[in-house]
Write a structure and sequence with these properties.
With 193 residues, the chain is α+β, with helices and mostly antiparallel strands. The chain has a domain at 66-190: OmpA-like domain (60s Ribosomal Protein L30, Chain: A), CATH 3.30.1330. It has 5 helices and 4 strands. It has helices at residues 2-20, 66-76, 93-112, 130-150, 175-181; strands at 82-83, 116-123, 158-164, 183-190. A 4-stranded mixed beta sheet has the order 1-4-2-3.
Length: 193
């Protein structure tokens, strides 16, 4: 029993020591503040791009009245087609004479009806590929336009277009027919249409 009492006393002493001796609190350094997510600083609003001046779009002129169209068609009827040799786009001597004569009527159209543009249309005969004939028709139309510009027709009133072998005026498979299709034809179009 004695040994049991000693053992109990020992246990009590340990308990007293444990309960009575609190460990001293060690001063801990304060924890650093938790990292805060960076708040993005509000960027200054972007400067608006410099204002571009919008091009002033003029309203298209009204469509010409029917009597004007008739008058233009009458003047165009005086204009003759210009013809070219096979596989050529240079202006022949007879074509020069025709273009000089045509220039008189063309000046009249542009003087009386400044709202019209003249269009030189290049054509070819049926021989050759579509691509080749489009290029050849384009060269024919452009050469005719350049000739008219040298005669004083304003370049800004002229445009060229190629139809190649499309829109033939003759469909026979003869040299005479092919010659009729190798041409430059002048038309006029109102800038309002």
């Amino acid at each position: 029993m004695k040994s049991e009492a000693i053992r109990n006393l020992g246990l009590i002493a340990v308990l007293v020591l444990l309960v009575g001796c609190h460990p001293k609190k060690v001063a801990q350094a304060p924890l650093p503040p938790a990292p805060q997510p960076e708040v993005a600083k509000a960027a200054p609003p972007p400067e608006p791009p410099p204002k571009r001046e919008e091009p002033k779009v003029e309203a298209p002129p009204p469509a010409p009245p029917p009597e004007v169209k008739v008058r233009v068609e009458d003047l165009l009827a005086k204009i003759q087609d210009v013809y070219f040799d096979y596989d050529k786009h240079n202006i022949r001597t007879d074509a020069e004479t025709t273009l000089q004569s045509n220039a008189v009527a063309l000046r009249e159209i542009l003087k009386q009806f400044p709202g019209y543009k003249l269009r030189m249309e290049g054509f070819c005969d049926e021989r050759g590929s579509d691509e080749y004939n489009l290029a050849l028709g384009d060269a024919r139309a452009k050469n005719a336009v350049e000739f008219l510009v040298r005669l004083g027709i304003p370049a800004d009133q002229l445009q060229s277009v190629s139809y190649g072998k499309e829109k033939p005026v003759c469909s026979d498979h003869t040299e005479d027919c092919w010659q009729k299709n190798r041409r430059a034809h002048t038309s006029a179009q109102s800038s309002s249409t």
